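DM from R.C. (forwarded with permission)

"hey, sorry to bug you on a friday — could you get me a structure for this? deadline for the figure draft is monday and I only need the backbone to look sensible"
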Amino acid sequence: MSIPDTPSINDLLAIIAELQPEVAALRVRVSELEAENERLRKMVSGQGPPKPPALSDLPHFVKPNRPKQPKDKTHRRQRDCGYSRPLSEPTRTEEHALERCPDCGHKLSGGWLHDEREVIDIPPIAVEVVRHCFIARRCGVCGKRHLPKRAEALSGLTVGRHRFGVRLISLIAELVNVCRMPVRTVKRLLASLFGIHISAGGIVSLLAAVAKSGKRMYSELQEAVRGSPFVHADETGWQEDGMNGYLWSFSTPDMRLFVRSPSRAHTVPEGVLGSEYRGIVVSDFYSAYGYHLGLHQRCWVHLLRDLKRVQETFPNDPSVQEWAKEVHALYTDATSVCHLRRKDRMRAREGFQERALDLALPYRKTDHPQAALAERLYRFASELFTFVEHPQVPPDNNAAERAIRPAVVARKVSGGTRSTNGSQVRATLMSLFSTWDARGLDTWRACQQMLAQNA
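My reply, with the result:
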């Protein structure tokens, strides 16, 4: 706006009229700033809550906060179960209270329960040494001397002529077979906890006594395995006095049988199961199990694992990838028909065998990467789908792998055994303790019962 040097009255009136709207706008702005200043002053002094910014002042990517709704504690959702650790039943209660006031020294009495805490510990263990004295008495009528029989007096207390009781012997067997502790570690533990000093040879002798006491049960396990409708079989390496050998495992859902042999030939499973066994043998593709003329179920997990390895080795070969997908689809289809009737399952099994042969024929005896797996699929087509017709049989041999895994861990700890007798003792003890564990029994108490019955 330009103002002349000597404005006239009309010029001044025009300027005033032009400035009036601007003055009114400035007054409105001043009143807004004063209100904002008052709000900020109250916020700083703590007299009022901070005002959230207007929605128009927020960026487009910031979502406004939802107003908090008051919680209705009367309609709290009830949990299905509590998640706090349950307290154990106390065997002893101790009360802690101050006798005198720490400030003035006045004697304190009475009080109320303010807090409590649970402490779980084991009491000091003292060994019980019982000396059994056998008193001889003479009859005053016939003059004969009479003495109680030791076998009857000590029945259920010890094994043979050993000076240790069945609880201690069972504990030693538990530590070696279940906890997989070496003999020297067991020796140190017994000396530290109980003050019992047993030599390594003495511990080995006690383990042999337990195996001798369980020899009858070991034979019963073998007979029970021979009568089972199906059995899982597997083997692993086991050295004896530095010489290579094998530990064979034969297992059912509630039984475990281990046999150590220097051979890996078919004569071992044939001798364990017997030539007249008519059940189903579930195994991997090892040829030693081919002696069995009855039904087989070969492990699909082994086949799929080798198939995955070929896929990873040849990721850019479309024939390998496509063939692997078709084999996977065959296995998936086979596992989905177990709910059918028996006649339908028999027809389905025949159809799956034909599909397996169709997949194997184009690639067996060729130079394709999947040639070896195609040959295996062709050779064992009739033994891969037994589980379709018999749903109680699993399509894999994972049960045998799980049964033999503790023995593999024990082998890595101990390195094997030193003699044929030691191998037989170890196989017997592993069979007994693994069977008790598979049946859901307390292995330590089960061993005590067995020793007490056979003492």
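R.C.: lifesaver. The first strand starts at residue 137 and ends at 138.
me: no worries. The mean pLDDT is 89.
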